[in-house]
Amino acid sequence: MTPQIALTLGIIGVAVVLFATEKLRVDVIALLVLLALALSGLVGPDEVFAGFASPAVITVWAVYIVSGALFKTGVADVLGQQIIRLAGTSEPRLIAIIMLTCGVMSAFMNNIGA
User: Fold this and answer.
1) How far apart are CA 95 and CA 103, in angstroms?
2) CA distance 54 to 76
3) What digits encode the pLDDT tens for the residues 64-97?
4) Which of 34, 50, 95, 113 has the most other CB atoms within 10 Å of its CB?
């Protein structure tokens, strides 16, 4: 195992532990991983911020913003209550309704990550 591989695995390991323990916010952990990769020299200066120009990254960022707004305004709670009301106490029915809801929503979402 080369030192670069060991360092990369170490950074990934620390990130996984931080994600699992939720000691820091997810976005802070991601930026710390980016910073660690840049400072260690594993990623070149030209490649460090190149991902921010990717349409997939911008789409994920926008989804976080929209979902945060839906939670703050209470729309997510209303949608969740409606799903639970339709499902009742049946777990298979709940799974089917969630799958149907996600399928309908994905029909209108941009598939830019592919």
Assistant:
1) 12
2) 28
3) 898 889 889 999 899 889 989 988 888 999 999 9
4) 34
